[in-house]
């Protein structure tokens, strides 16, 4: 069942979204060569506790995981793209890190993700991150009342293909609101003018993720971490978005990056 939110309820989600966006921006600044993934995890735990928020990841136990997820962040490095378990790993020069988080405040949830390069960037990695951000902006732009859910999916897929990347349809975006995962599923590929009609009050997480040279994935023995099947680099961007009568409203915008941006993109050749 899809629950349409009132304008007041969307405003309450936006409070959560603002915190998520601010914390992700903060974490992307903390991430650097020599920083342990567990330092990022504990930093986020402190901030969430200080805000009186509640992690949607802690004790999350879906059918595809192995046991409850006892962390507040998904931290995925290099060929890992989704659901990466924070662990004892020190970031190295040139690592591509994806940070994903979802929290609830006063009963309303927001979910967002970004990818960054720590240290010296590889232009190919920056291009991959850029593709997810451009695809996210295209998906957001398509989330307009009267449109169809397939328009969002098709917009994401079109950007991926324009960059030369394939699209995996196994994991994508989702409805969100009172809980982290609600209906509908938001695929990263689809056909325009198909699927659910978008109505004001629909709130969804749009999250394009791409692998550099494959559209196939594999899962680690931990039952959580999803990697590219061929070991190529990966990237992930995500925002929580509300469909409103005035058009799409990004609820997880980040300081200094605008509402439709998924984060900072370093252009090839730019300083780290």
UniProtKB/TrEMBL annotation:
Binds 2 divalent metal cations per subunit. Has a high-affinity and a low affinity metal-binding site. The true nature of the physiological cofactor is under debate. The enzyme is active with cobalt, zinc, manganese or divalent iron ions. Most likely, methionine aminopeptidases function as mononuclear Fe(2+)-metalloproteases under physiological conditions, and the catalytically relevant metal-binding site has been assigned to the histidine-containing high-affinity site. It catalyses: Release of N-terminal amino acids, preferentially methionine, from peptides and arylamides. Gene3D superfamilies: Creatinase/methionine aminopeptidase superfamily. It is an enzyme of class 3 (hydrolase). GO terms for molecular function: initiator methionyl aminopeptidase activity. Residues 245-272 are annotated as: Disordered. Its cofactor is Co(2+); Zn(2+); Mn(2+); Fe(2+). Keywords: Aminopeptidase, Hydrolase, Metal-binding, Protease. A divalent metal cation 2 binds at residues 111, 174, 207, 238. A divalent metal cation 1 binds at residues 100, 111, 238. The keyword Protease applies. Belongs to the peptidase M24A family. Methionine aminopeptidase type 1 subfamily. Monomer. Removes the N-terminal methionine from nascent proteins. The N-terminal methionine is often cleaved when the second residue in the primary sequence is small and uncharged (Met-Ala-, Cys, Gly, Pro, Ser, Thr, or Val). Requires deformylation of the N(alpha)-formylated initiator methionine before it can be hydrolyzed. This is Methionine aminopeptidase. It comes from Plantactinospora siamensis. The gene is map.
